[in-house]
Amino acid sequence: MEPMFRVSEVYFIRPDALEALHNSTFKSVLSWYYSILLEESPAKFHIAKVIEIPSDVRFDDDIESLWWYHDSLEKTFLSLWKEVRGEGIKFNEFLKRYRYSERSFLDLKIAIARKILGKCSFCEWRCGVDRTKGYVGRCRLETNSYVHSWFLHIGEEAPLVPSGTIFYGSCNFRCVFCQNWDISQEHPFGGIEVDAKNIAVMQKELTRNGARNINHVGGEPTPNIHNILESLKYLDINIAQLWNSNFYMSIESMKLLIHVIDIWLPDFKYGNNECAYRLSKITRYIDIVGRNHRIAIEWGDMIIRHLVLPNHIECCSKPVLRWIAENLPKDRVLVNIMDQYRPEYKAYEYRDIARRPKREELEEVYSYADSLGILWREISR
């Protein structure tokens, strides 16, 4: 399949992105990601593709049966992933040792995702609508996905640049300050309608042009899990998969993703449920996002993004940083304390966030992160 349009060429790479290849902190904290990037270890989706499912598994079985088989194969995945890491097996060697299975662990995940689509619970809104029949829930999406742009992003964190970024339309949040409001809220279907094979073509093209990773973002990638998983079935190249998300996924989605995502790039926006509801119209924020952070760190590397909002230092920034310090292994997480907030979309309707953060506010957040021993300075500079 020919690409629908060509990815833009990158004529330069930021100096700090080049330096990041040799940064000891990045290589230590993001060890799995760097093993794919520098040592050519197979990305996790390739491991999932060689694990054969039992011959008696039928993809049209009820979803409870499919989940039982899925969960029973996790030990097999863990054993093979441990072998890859322990022996330092490179991608080409991996393909010589193991063959892709005609009916693989990845195929099982795709089958489960398609069943979930019929009663959607990809995110914790759990709308329960049958998207295969045209009904829509919070994300307003049916079966196909909408990609608004895909390109080599040079504005991400240094270890990720150039990042092969795919911007999916629509979102399950309603952030009043969204800086991508045009694709997440106002015109979620304004991009190109794509299926799994189209997404695979995009990933191949981005990789050929020098991407260090495939960055699934938006909007929000979560409503597109079925197509993203299936795209990996058609991907024969080795590239780290990155999940750039608001992290409001359901536990079912986490179970589908943990065996194929190599590096997580979650937002941790709020330090309490009240601010989350007021500014993003989201319920149970801390419980759900916190749970997913705890799960994700056991299954790959992580860079957490926290955008500092004006007047939200005590209620959000400090509690978020404290939560990270108390709940996650600090030597395995990088935190990007982001200072680029600006009032966008409907932010001017909310007096507390109708300005940029002051330098004193930012310095207070930085000092607090230092006091907690959080790794943030190199990734946030």
From TrEMBL:
Pfam families: Radical_SAM
Keyword S-adenosyl-L-methionine: yes
GO molecular function: catalytic activity; iron-sulfur cluster binding; metal ion binding
Tree of life domain: Archaea
Keyword hit for Transmembrane helix: no
Record's keyword terms, sorted: Iron, Iron-sulfur, Metal-binding, S-adenosyl-L-methionine
Signal peptide: none
Residues in Radical SAM core domain copies: 166-274
InterPro entries cross-referenced by the UniProt entry: Aldolase_TIM, MJ0674-like, rSAM, rSAM_sf
Protein name as catalogued: Radical SAM domain protein
Organism: Ignisphaera aggregans (strain DSM 17230 / JCM 13409 / AQ1.S1)
